[in-house]
Structures are given as structure tokens and as C-alpha cells.
Amino acid sequence: MGVYPFHYFRMIKVNRIILAAALLFMNGCVSPSVGEKLSERINNKPDKVSKSDMSIYASDASTMMAINHILPAKMGQFEMMNKTIIFPAFKRNDIDVYNSLQFLTPEGENEDGTYTFVYVANPYLQDKNYDILDILIAEYGRSRAEEYFDIWLSCFAYEQEVMSFR
Fold it and tell me: Considering only CA atoms, which of 138, 133, 125 is closest in space to residue 93?
């Protein structure tokens, strides 16, 4: 190995000093502008803030989730019924309910071999009808609706779980 000339070490010290000076300069320029923006946000807050404005909860809104544990052999049938029969019936009979609904499909099976599909109503419209049988009857008539509903029920491994959130 060779001996490095003295000016090499002086160059490292000079580069470090220039870098430190540049960082201090940038920090001095950026900090006041960030601080000014923060103080503007604090100073521009309204004097009277109601308690409802500070709430993290949606006012008068709630969410409903229906969790469906579906048999492996019936998974395709359940998904097909929702996409081609149930959701189109909601869309034609009550567009508000249809727009509030989401149908979530599983990425894989559960430990017990079942598949979990979820209906999410967000927001859950309290004054609207989410009953699948009622919507099917309105759309297809009683006899065909009961046939569809029986097929839908035959897909379940366990009873549907319904939960509400605010």
C-alpha cells in the first residue's frame, strides 16, 4: 500500500465542512417556512369548535357487516348468485341500498376449509330494506325468489353473522 499525500486528508476535511455548512444553510431555510405554515394552521383555527366536529365517528352513520361462511363445494355457486341474481335485484329495486353495499370475496380458504364472504353496507341506511328474500320477491316473484333463496341458504356452512358498527 502507498502513503496518501497530505492534501487528500485536507480535501476530506474541507468536503465535510462544506457538507455541514450546506446542511445548516438548508435547515435554516426550511425550518422557518415549515414553522410559519404550522403557526398559520394553528392561528387560523375557528374559535368555536363543536364537539361533533372533533368526533372521529361519522355522524348519524353506521356500518353493517354480514359474514358468511360458505361450504367449499358451494363457493362458486354462492359468488355467482350474488353477482348475477342478488346484487342486480338490489340495483333494480333500490339503488340507494345497492350503492351502499359491497361484496367482498375471500383470497383463500379458512382453516376449516370454508370460505368467508362478507357483505358490507357503508353507510347502513336504517330506513331501507336489506333483506335478501324481500328483494328477491320484489324482483322475481314469490316462487322463484324462494327457489333462489333456498339455493343461497344451501351454500352456508354456518349461520350468517351480522355486526353493526358506528
Answer: 138
Taking alpha carbons only, the member of 97, 105, 144 closest to residue 121 is 97
The 10s digit of each residue's pLDDT in 112-155 is: 999 999 999 998 888 999 999 999 999 999 999 999 999 999 99
Region 52-63: what's the mean pLDDT? 57
If 0-12 CB within 10 Å is exposed, 13-18 middle and 19+ buried, where does residue 163 land? Answer: exposed
The mean pLDDT of 91-99, rounded to a whole number, is 94
The answer to whether residues 115 and 70 touch, using CB atoms and an 8 Å cutoff, is yes
Chain CA centroid to CA 12, Å: 52
- Joined grid coordinates for residue 133: 328474500
Give the full edge-to-edge strand order of the sheet including 101-104.
101-104, 115-121, 63-70, 161-165
Buried b (16+ CB within 10 A) or exposed e, 131-141: ebeebbbbbbe
Predicted pLDDT of residue 51: 45
8-state DSSP, 164:
E
Instruction: Give the end-to-end CA distance of the chain in Å, rounded to a whole number.
Output: 72
Is a pLDDT exceeding 70 seen at residue 166? yes
Spatial separation of the C-alpha atoms in residues 3 and 9, rounded to whole Å: 12
